[in-house]
Amino acid sequence: MDQAGSLNHVLWLGGSPCSGKSTMADRLSEQFDLHVYHVDEAFGEYVQRISSVRHPVTYKWVHTPWQDLWMQPHDVLLEEAIAAYSEQFELILEDLHALPDTGPVLAEGTALLPGMVVTLLSQPNQALWMVPTEAFQREMYPKRGAWVQEILATCDDPQAALENWMDRDVAFARWVADEAAAQDLPCIWVDGSPGISERTVMVADYFGLRG
User: Fold this and answer.
1) Bridge-partner residues for 37, per DSSP?
2) pLDDT at residue 35 is higher than 80
3) Degrees (nearest 5) of the Cα angle 33, 177, 16?
4) What contacts 24+ positions apart, CB below 8 Å, involve 70-73?
């Protein structure tokens, strides 16, 4: 199967956590009648399809208590994140190929690594990455929802766990930006200005979306 040709109706919005990807994807869906595939929301279904042989790092993630996961050094966490997202990409492609080819699709998620997506692009403005600045991430991440505090509450030292978590995501944002640049792909740094409405307009224009 020609994966690039069969997915030329897919727009790709990748990047690291806390950059506003999900909110932006939902807004673009409402404005331009796009079908949105949220990678994070599909993760629970991926868990039913992974194996310790084909997806060893993702399997480890799923079966490791938060305490043990977040007490690892941030460089180990970064290495594992990149490996796990790489493993999950085949699952993402399986889902995208299974969607009815009835209109444009916007795939959104952290696991959309530039080096993997680039092989599927049929036009230059088909993919975009967004990453938060360190200051914006550290300010906004603890406010993302009760689930963040629920995870931290399972750790013996919640503050140390949060620091490792944030250090991992700061490093991942830099890695994504560097990877996008190496593939000559666009990456936007997000610091909260302009606001989400203005950024949504900018991204719609980049993708060539018309209402």
Assistant:
1) 107
2) yes
3) 55
4) 70/155, 70/160, 70/161, 70/162, 70/164, 70/165, 71/155, 71/157, 71/160, 71/161, 71/164, 72/164, 73/164
Q: How many structural domains compose the chain?
A: 1
Q: Token digits for 5? A: 């040709």
Please state, rounded to an integer, the average pLDDT across all residues of the chain. 93
pLDDT tens, position by position, 95-146: 999 998 778 999 999 999 999 999 999 988 999 999 999 999 999 888 888 9
Q: What is the pLDDT of residues 182-196, one digit of tens each?
A: 999 999 999 988 888
Cα separation, 85 vs 92, in Å, equals 10
How many contiguous H segments (helices) and E segments (strands) does the chain have? 11, 5
CATH at residue 191: 3.40.50.300
C-alpha 116/C-alpha 195 separation (Å) is: 29
Tell me the residue range of the domain where 183 lies. 3-207
- Cβ neighbours of 190 (radius 10 Å): 23
Confidence band, pLDDT 50/70/90 cuts, at residue 1: very low
